[in-house]
Amino acid sequence: QPQLVESGGGWVQPGGSLRLSCAASGFAFSIYDMRWYRQPPGKERELVAGITTRGGTLDYADSVKGRFTISRDDAQNTLYLQMNSLKPEDTAVYYCYARFSPIYYWGQGTQVIVSS
Fold it and tell me: Of 106, 94, 97, 86, nearest to 16 (Cα)?
């Protein structure tokens, strides 16, 4: 059964850091392009960052460039999102997404709250 499980969310003060993890199982993680999405309260889901197989291409939303870093460990079947200099507008549920067209999987999400 394919599964993506996010962890690492929580509450942090503005300017702080968090590292999200997404543990994959039940499918060939290394051949999937991976992404992080987020859904702020009352808003639509949006792309945060993406990484292709073997970490070949990295892509970031303008709002997180220079603050967030996406990475993957294919040996551990895990995707990461290092988030630094967090702002209140980064508050959202963060989702992990795997795609090997036309197949795709979503995680259940992890909540991040940035507030003083």
Answer: 86
Q: What is the pLDDT of residue 50?
A: 97
Give me the amino acid identity at 91.
T
Mean pLDDT across 66-90: 97
Tokens of residue 49, six digits: 């960052």
Strands (E), 8-91: 10-12, 18-25, 33-39, 46-51, 58-60, 68-73, 78-83
Q: Indicate if the alpha-carbon torsion angle 28, 97, 93, 74 is positive or negative.
A: positive
Instruction: Tell me whether the omega of the peptide bond preceding residue 2 falls within 30 degrees of 0, making it cis.
Output: no
